[in-house]
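Reading a protein record of the kind used here takes only a little practice. An example makes this concrete, so a full record is given next.
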Amino acid sequence: MAGNTTVIFDFDKTIIECDSDNWVVDELGATDLFNQLLPTMPWNSLMDRMMMELHQQGKTIDDIVEVLNRIPIHPRVVPAIKAAHALGCDLRIVSDANLFFIETMLKHLGLREYFSEINTNPSFVDEQGRLRIQPFHDFKNSSHGCTIGTCPPNMCKGVILERIQASMAAEGNKRIIYLGDGAGDYCPSLKLKESDFVMPRKNFPVWDLISKNPLLIKPKIHEWTDGEEFEKVLLSLIDTISADEKSAAFTSTDFKMPSNNIDVSAIPKALPVQQ
């Protein structure tokens, strides 16, 4: 079992095969308006605006749910997540999507109960039946303080990771496996420890950033390309951590030094060597 392992997943293009924001906008026929407004406001604010536009066009929450339930996902991702949970891992999500989108898809996939925590942009359905999307960090009032340069104004995943690390400190020597694809996943990759693992999706923005100077990354780097490798690499790393835990436990319990109260007179004396 891997009870000392926390696996942190990005959501878009990591658990699912696309960007959930783009998927909803495209499937509900609002791509042109989205592209028109994109240069004028931050992404998170734009998504809240797009939900207003779709609501005014007569699109309902049920329409959004139906679209989300059709989102593409590699067939090996769900079994991999279930296997990691069965092995005792604590599973969490850190995503710049939003809670309504993520929870809707996780429930559809039968995965919601497998995750202990979802860190993402808050969202709710208001009294008019419109989906509202808010920033994880209220960037209009203050900055989240990150200086890496790859985090959007509404979320620094590195800050979130540091909070998770602090909460884990009291639980002993826990290790993290972090999976992601986007530029926003670079900052938390820099904050992982040498005993951790990072799984960047190959040929995606976080992979490109890591590849520029891999020496800045303390954890071991294990890339993946698709859902099949997602499963293979993740379960292999969990197995590695479990083996390390067993080895440490074996060493600490089976190779203890003799106590000081042993009767040394009972220890056989060395035989003299014949000259």
